[in-house]
């Protein structure tokens, strides 16, 4: 829950009356089964911060990857890996 609370706070801090109308956070399920996370960083402090591909594959069902491309954080993973994707985003977003 700590990570979800952090994400809520990050989203709230970036809402300025305009940003949330065009950008934001998407969390979806995918049919392999798993999760897909997309966090648009345009007009945030993270817009130009780089994240090289982070990829963990423990087995067919326990995996995730995270990357930033064109100002958007992308994360995907197995059905049990949503929290790891969000933790990856949090660690990256808060590191100096």
Q: What is this entry, summarized?
A:
This protein has helices spanning 2-14, 19-22, 82-94, and strands spanning 25-30, 34-40, 54-57, 63-69, 72-78. It has 96 residues and is α+β, with helices and mostly antiparallel strands. It is globular.
Description:
Pfam families: Imm53. Strand 3 (54-57) and strand 4 (63-69) form a beta hairpin. This protein has helices at 2-14, 19-22, 82-94, and strands at residues 25-30, 34-40, 54-57, 63-69, 72-78. It has a five-stranded antiparallel sheet with strand order 1-2-5-4-3, with helices on one face. Helix 1 (2-14) packs across helix 3 (82-94). With 96 residues, it is α+β, with helices and mostly antiparallel strands. It has three helices and five strands; from the N terminus they run H-H-E-E-E-E-E-H. It has one domain (2-94). The model has no long low-confidence stretch (mean pLDDT 96).
Detail the topology: elements first, then pairings.
Elements: H1 2-14, H2 19-22, E1 25-30, E2 34-40, E3 54-57, E4 63-69, E5 72-78, H3 82-94
Helix pairs in contact: 1-3
């Amino acid at each position: 829950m700590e990570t979800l609370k952090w994400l809520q706070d990050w989203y709230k801090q970036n809402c300025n009356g305009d940003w949330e109308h065009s950008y934001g956070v998407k969390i979806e399920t995918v049919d392999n089964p798993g999760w897909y996370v997309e966090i648009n960083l345009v007009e945030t402090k993270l817009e130009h911060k780089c994240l090289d591909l982070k990829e963990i594959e423990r087995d067919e069902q326990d995996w995730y990857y995270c990357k930033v491309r064109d100002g958007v954080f992308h994360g995907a993973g197995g059905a049990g890996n949503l929290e790891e994707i969000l933790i990856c985003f949090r660690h990256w977003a808060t590191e100096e």
